[in-house]
Design a protein that fits this description.
Helices cover 24% and strands 23% of the residues. The protein is an alpha/beta fold. The strands form 4 sheets. A 6-stranded mixed sheet has the order 3-13-14-15-17-16, covered by helices on one side. It has a 6-stranded mixed sheet with strand order 12-11-10-9-18-19, with no helix packed on it. Strand 18 and strand 19 form a beta hairpin.
Length: 472
């Protein structure tokens, strides 16, 4: 077959793609094979790199190469999307009111079921109370101030009004209260003030792990492709290990797949790849190195090409295009709730950790070193980003960040610190990073965990930390 016949028989777009890959010479017998075998042509186009000269022997090596097994169908793996953010209402002047009204309704419904709050009244009714009767109120924290003697004064509001609440210096949980969360308080009413004797957070009920034969899962995050500090050698060790251990059926990625562009002043100086498009294309090449029967489940993070307010939908379609070629990859919203093999997984990148760790006195000194402390706080508050303002929230009519479904596994990233713990039966997983320690992290005294990730046996929830930073 000659080149003219090949061009006539093969779709023009595919013909152009072959030469765009750097092919300069195609031998006649190779032309005939490509023209008669469209699957072979597609296999050639799917390669990341091809030789300058296409020979029949090279094409034969493609057709005889062992093929990877196709990803198992969703039904076979018992997969269900429980809660995924894909639709939102237009922003109006009422949007913020609707957001906080939704938050109050959802969390107060949870609090009303607490036995300590059986005597709850609306805040507007407090002025009618006579004597020193023990009462309860449920409200959203609007203001917090500190007194010199260690007490805290809250301004708490519900849909009927607001009141000041005095928290004694010795009150358990006093240091954990943050702005904009919904809490329950028991105590006694005075004139225009409420004297607290107990704080009740929405909190989760204990979770039981349904034991059953299941495969293993690996939890990673913060790949940061495009950064000069991206640890490519660590990625290679990781992929080599992962492709050998076929008992691992799931790979969860908690965001920050790429380093991003314009994330902070002077970032351009720390980038190896200085465009989003280039970073995503490189990411796709790295993810393609994993075996095809592995199921990769990812969300985005604050460095990824997405809107910077949470909840974040999945990537825009133009960004996703290179990732569509990674057949075993699925990208969901940040956050997402997924049910896999009878277990519920909550994936959240963790951007709210920065404001939370700074605001909660009981974890301020240790939160970046032990991120499970921040995860526990979010589960207690039943909200993934309670403090409005420090972490940008999109003003939806419904507050998607409320933890209305309690997971078996809560997976986060963002702080680049590996950590594993359990809270009331929920497995808390914070994964390390593929980015070396940055100057900014050193300045703040953070101690990231490059190359350290969490392997979990989904049969019983037991976990171990794998360290791919070590020479193997």
């Amino acid at each position: 077959m000659d080149l003219q016949s090949f061009v006539r028989d093969v779709p023009r777009q595919k013909f152009q793609q072959i030469f765009q890959k750097g092919v300069k010479v195609i031998y006649e017998d190779a032309l005939a094979r490509l023209s008669s075998n469209t699957q072979l042509l597609d296999a050639l186009l799917s390669l990341d790199s091809v030789p300058d000269e296409l020979t029949l022997s090279f094409l034969d090596s493609l057709s005889t190469a062992p093929s990877e097994p196709e990803p198992a169908p969703r039904d076979a793996l018992s997969f269900r999307v429980v809660k995924h953010y894909a639709d939102w209402a237009p922003v109006t002047p009422k949007s913020f009111l609707q957001l906080f009204s939704s938050r109050y309704r959802e969390l107060s419904r949870i609090l009303y079921r607490k036995p300590q709050l059986k005597s709850t009244v609306s805040i507007s009714q407090l002025s009618r109370v006579k004597g020193r009767e023990d009462l309860s109120i449920i409200g959203l924290v609007r203001e917090i101030s500190e007194l010199n003697d260690g007490r805290r004064i809250l301004v708490v509001e519900d849909l009927s009004g607001s009141t000041k609440v005095i928290l004694p210096a010795s009150l358990p949980g006093k240091e954990d209260v943050v702005l904009d969360e919904v809490i329950g308080v028991t105590g006694q009413a005075g004139r225009g003030i409420f004297f607290a004797n107990q704080l009740i957070f929405p909190d989760i009920a204990p979770v039981e792990w349904p034991r059953a034969p299941r495969p293993k899962a690996l939890f990673i995050s913060d790949i940061h492709v495009g950064s000069k500090k991206y640890l490519e050698d660590t990625w290679e060790k990781f992929v080599s290990w992962l492709n050998e251990h076929r008992e691992v059926k799931y790979l969860f990625i908690a965001g920050d797949l790429v380093d991003g562009v314009g994330m902070y002043q002077g970032q351009a100086n720390s980038l190896e790849i200085d465009t989003f498009e280039g970073q995503i294309e490189a990411l796709a090449r790295y993810l393609k190195q994993t075996r095809h029967d592995l199921r990769i489940i990812s969300i985005s993070g604050n460095h990824d090409p997405n809107r910077d307010s949470e909840p974040q939908p999945t990537f825009p379609e133009e960004i996703l295009k290179p990732l569509r070629h990674v057949k075993n990859l699925e990208v969901y919203s940040n956050p997402s709730w997924l049910e896999i093999e009878g277990l519920t997984f909550l994936l959240y990148h963790g951007t709210s950790f920065d404001g939370l760790i700074d605001a909660v006195g009981s974890i301020r000194a240790r939160g970046y070193h032990e991120p499970h402390l921040a995860q526990m706080q979010l589960l207690k508050k039943r909200h993934l980003s309670p403090i409005f303002g420090r972490n940008k929230l999109f003003p939806d009519s419904q507050d998607f960040m409320v933890i209305d479904r309690v997971p078996h596994v809560f997976h986060t990233g963002h702080v680049h610190k590996v950590d594993v713990s359990t809270y009331k039966g929920v497995r808390l997983v914070s994964s390390g990073t593929f980015q070396d320690v940055t100057d900014f992290q050193e300045k703040l005294g953070h101690e990231p965990s490059p190359g350290k990730f969490v392997l979990m046996d989904l049969s019983d929830g037991s976990s171990s930390v794998l360290d791919f930073s070590k020479v193997r």
